[in-house]
Design goal:
Layout (H helix, E strand, L loop, with lengths): L6 H5 L8 H13 L6 H14 L3 H17 L5 H10 L8 H10 L1 H5 L4 H7 L6 H5 L3
Length: 136
Amino acid sequence: MLNSNMAEKARGQLKVPGNSDVVNELVQYMYTDSPTSNLVMVAEDLLPIAHMYELEGLVRHCQDSLVSSVITTKCQNVAKKLILLYRHGSKLIQNMDLLIQHAQMHLYELSREDYWPDLKAEKVIPNFTSFFKKKI
């Protein structure tokens, strides 16, 4: 990052958006190449930053954490998490089939979330458009 032709190189510093937990997780990963147990709590906020700085390993860790939380929760903020995953490299997600299956099983709950219109508009999941066309 500081060795490439990015703005950070010209300034000689990084300006990382986010709270201290997100920044701490990012710095921890940059020094050790492994996330901490706190990743689960910050993955939503950290994924866009990891993607922006092209930290592929951290992107995958954040994706895995989000996929796991989607599959194991009762659709709390699932639409928002699906959009995040879509915007930040969903093609890399290994458990996409489980994610799609989970979303299909909980379509009614998904349709009641604030992010449902965004989820529909972006056609987040391939081969899922037929489910969006259903009347809930």
